[in-house]
Design brief:
- This protein is of the alpha+beta class.
- Helices cover about 35% and strands about 20% of the residues.
- It contains 7 helices and 9 strands.
- It starts with a strand and ends with a helix.
Length: about 200
């Protein structure tokens, strides 16, 4: 969660002329919530920087967009007015992975010696024990687990073994001490509209 506190002197001076700021702040909250959700379609952070592309093995069949698989993260973005000069914007619910995507992370194995990173869509959705029942033979070579479906077929690379995996930061909430320019413009225009 981040809190957006209006502390720009020009805006505060103009805000002081408005008796009921709640309606104005609700309009601003609706705008920044929608604007933040649209970042998922634009595939960029709040300051216009493109997100790092997905690696080939993390792309899903149904979605080639970054951070949009089921839409749960995108749909959990909410903005609420919490005081007459503050709006709270963040992820609602217990989405532990939201922080990972906002700031990035390095993942290391907890109980095993290595992470098994799937290399095929089949290996992505099946456990290693389920893979064993579908393949005639499975073997390890140079950190890659291969499977052979029939006696005479060619080996298929199924998993890559790694000591760590890095998930790059793909921020969807503002992370600088300044508001995105689109927000500033909208807020100033809304305040001016209210005092006219």
């Amino acid at each position: 969660m981040i809190e957006i506190k209006i502390d720009d002197k020009e805006i505060i001076e103009k805000l002081s002329k408005i008796k009921d700021k709640t309606k104005l702040l609700k309009r601003i909250a609706i705008y920044i919530e929608g604007w933040t959700i649209r970042l998922f379609n634009k595939q960029q952070d709040p300051y216009g920087n493109k997100w790092k592309p997905l690696k080939l093995n993390t792309k899903r069949k149904n979605s080639s967009k970054i951070l949009i698989d089921t839409g749960t993260l995108r749909n959990s973005i909410k903005a609420n007015v919490i005081s007459e000069d503050t709006i709270r914007l963040g992820v609602v619910g217990d989405l532990v992975y939201a922080k990972t995507h906002q700031f990035g992370a390095i993942i290391t194995p907890k109980r095993a010696k290595a992470l098994t990173i799937p290399l095929t869509s089949e290996s992505r959705y099946l456990t290693l024990s389920a893979i064993k029942t579908r393949y005639y033979a499975i073997f390890l070579r140079k950190g890659v687990i291969f499977g052979i479906k029939t006696k005479n077929s060619k080996p298929i690379a199924l998993y890559y073994l790694s000591k760590k995996a890095e998930i790059p930061a793909r921020p969807f909430l503002p992370y600088k001490n300044e508001l995105p320019n689109d927000w500033k413009s909208f807020i100033i225009n809304e305040v001016i509209r209210q005092i006219k």
